[in-house]
Write a structure and sequence with these properties.
single chain, 90 residues, mainly alpha, 2 domains, two-stranded parallel ribbon, 37% helix, 9% strand, Ssirtuin_cat_dom, DHS-like_NAD/FAD-binding_dom
């Protein structure tokens, strides 16, 4: 008998415990710097070389390479390792 597929609905908030800020929360990137949303908006990115430059700089300084998975991430892995097929939708 096959196990039912688990669809896990998630968002940026799942990674805040790892130190990765969300975008819209109280301490979110876009609240601290409303102009930051332009760095990830296609129309602004393609239409303004200065925004592309700022976006590249932001990605170069990306802190996500320096953080560790948190309890929520580990729980998803444990669920999958137990044999339950998991799909994460963000």
């Amino acid at each position: 008998m096959t196990k039912p597929l688990v669809a896990l609905l998630s968002g940026a908030g799942i990674s805040t415990d790892s130190g990765i800020p969300d975008y819209r929360g109280p301490n979110g990137l876009w609240r601290k710097d409303p102009e930051a949303e332009k760095l990830v908006t296609y129309e602004y990115y393609m239409g303004d070389p200065e925004i592309r430059r700022r976006s590249w700089q932001m990605r170069r300084k990306n802190r996500t390479l320096q953080v560790e998975p948190n309890a929520a991430h580990r729980a998803i892995v444990e669920l999958e390792q137990s044999g339950v097929p998991v799909r994460v939708i963000t």
